[in-house]
Amino acid sequence: MSKLYVGNLPSDCNESALRQLFQEHSLACTTILVKRGGYAFVDCADQSTADRAIDKLNGYTYLGSSLVVEPSVASAAKKRTVSTYVDDNEASRVLIPSSIRYHKAVGTFLYHK
């Protein structure tokens, strides 16, 4: 199963309307989850169907909105930036794994085996 992100949906778009759009383009989808904020996640039966959906619907004008259709990326896979600086006052309030320790002399966290 391949999951798609469908963005820039009109505010009045719901699950049945989006399902109908996919059916009109002969695209089989199993699950549609419409979220507030104008986006949805759609599960396609296979990668071939997902690729066809991207080709047919990405940039497609639907109820006055140009749709964005692309493969869904898991939130854990997205790049996140993490600040590694913690001053002495904050070090006691930070929850860290036991394999990582804060060293005041160095002023940073170090990994311990």
TrEMBL record:
Entry annotated with the keyword S-adenosyl-L-methionine: no
Keyword tags: RNA-binding
Keyword RNA-binding: yes
Highest taxon, organism lineage: Eukaryota
Domain named RRM: residues: 2-74
Gene3D superfamilies hit by this protein: 3.30.70.330
GO cellular component: nucleus
A GO MF term: mRNA binding
Protein name as it appears in the record: IF23A protein
Organism the protein comes from: Pseudoatta argentina
Source species taxonomy: Eukaryota, Metazoa, Ecdysozoa, Arthropoda, Hexapoda
